[in-house]
TrEMBL record:
InterPro entries: MetI-like, MetI-like_sf. It is a multi-pass membrane protein. It comes from Occultella gossypii. Keywords: Cell membrane, Membrane, Transmembrane, Transmembrane helix, Transport. The chain crosses the membrane at residues 17-40, 75-100, 112-131, 143-163, 184-209, 258-277. This is Carbohydrate ABC transporter permease. The keyword Hydrolase does not apply. It is found in: Cell membrane.
Length: 292
């Protein structure tokens, strides 16, 4: 017994270990299977019927074939560009709007905050959104998958809550030294908001990287398709990828191997970025959520 709380018994510990092991296996094994199938030799994939858990060797033909300048390479570059531009734009707008909503002297502060809160409850719908994008002349442009989702009301509320919680004494001392609103925002607000902005930036980045529905609605030109829409077309729908689509002159590996390689490529950027922002995740969300 520790501080009046009984220690868990040996049987309970064993049961917990077994349950957690099974849960981890259910999560990890599909990823292992995807990576293994993308790296397995063509003969093994054909013999196994399309899914390999332990490859007999390493064959990078699938990755070489989809990174030779064809559909997948173009879609990868488009997704990277949309994610970079969209994340920077979204962070800029969210930080500025969150700061404005946190300042009581902002004109129309309450009305604008009410508008942001209402947008959390009511979705405009697909048809009105499509008509707005059409009227703005953004159909079949990459702006159609950036602008409509550039500001998230939830993220604005989180950032506003963080700015509201900043020490007022620090702001007052900066004003005494002659700092205006822009200097307060740039030199005081943004540096202090680094953790919450890192988390919000991760949310935006993952959202832009994984977005396919808006692309499917607004982009009829396949040359503008991002990676996730290509992934849906050639993996979910089962459309066959030919040598002309991939821009490859080599003999292609099995379709399953190519599909798994596309999946791996679509996952890798998030796996690379997330560890660098993980240390900000809990701090940023808690700080932005409990204050204000």
């Amino acid at each position: 017994m520790i501080d009046g709380v009984p220690r868990p018994g040996r049987v309970e510990n064993v049961v917990k270990t077994i349950v957690l092991t099974i849960a981890c296996a259910l999560v990890i094994l599909p990823f292992v299977g995807i990576i293994s199938t993308s790296l397995a030799p063509a003969e093994q994939v054909n013999t196994a019927g399309g899914f390999v858990l332990l490859p007999e060797g390493i064959d990078l033909t699938a990755y070489a074939s989809i990174l030779t300048g064809g559909v997948v390479t173009r879609a990868l570059l488009i997704s990277a560009g949309v994610t970079a531009v969209g994340t920077v734009l979204s962070l800029t707008l969210t930080a500025m709007l969150g700061w404005a909503l946190s300042r009581r002297q902002t004109i129309g502060n309450r009305q604008l905050l009410l508008l942001v809160l209402v947008s959390l409850l009511f979705n405009p719908g697909i048809i009105p959104s499509y008509l707005v994008v059409q009227q703005l002349g953004m159909l079949d442009t990459l702006w159609a998958i950036i602008v409509p989702t550039s500001v998230s009301a939830f993220n604005v509320i989180v950032v506003r809550a963080f700015f509201v919680g900043l020490p007022q004494e620090v702001m007052d001392s900066a004003r005494i030294d002659g700092a205006g609103e822009w200097k307060l925002f740039w030199y005081m607000g943004l540096p202090l908001a680094r953790p919450v902005l890192a988390v919000v930036g991760l949310f935006y980045g993952v959202g832009y990287w994984n977005a396919f529905f808006n692309a499917m609605l607004y982009l009829s030109d396949s040359a503008l398709w991002p990676l996730q829409l290509v992934l849906r077309t050639y993996v979910v729908d089962g459309t066959q990828l030919g040598a002309q689509d991939l821009g490859a002159e080599m003999s292609l590996p099995p379709q399953t191997t190519i599909q798994m390689a596309i999946l791996v490529i679509s996952i890798i950027p998030i796996l690379i970025v997330y560890p660098f922002l993980q240390r900000h995740f809990a701090k940023g969300m808690l700080t932005g959520a409990v204050k204000g």
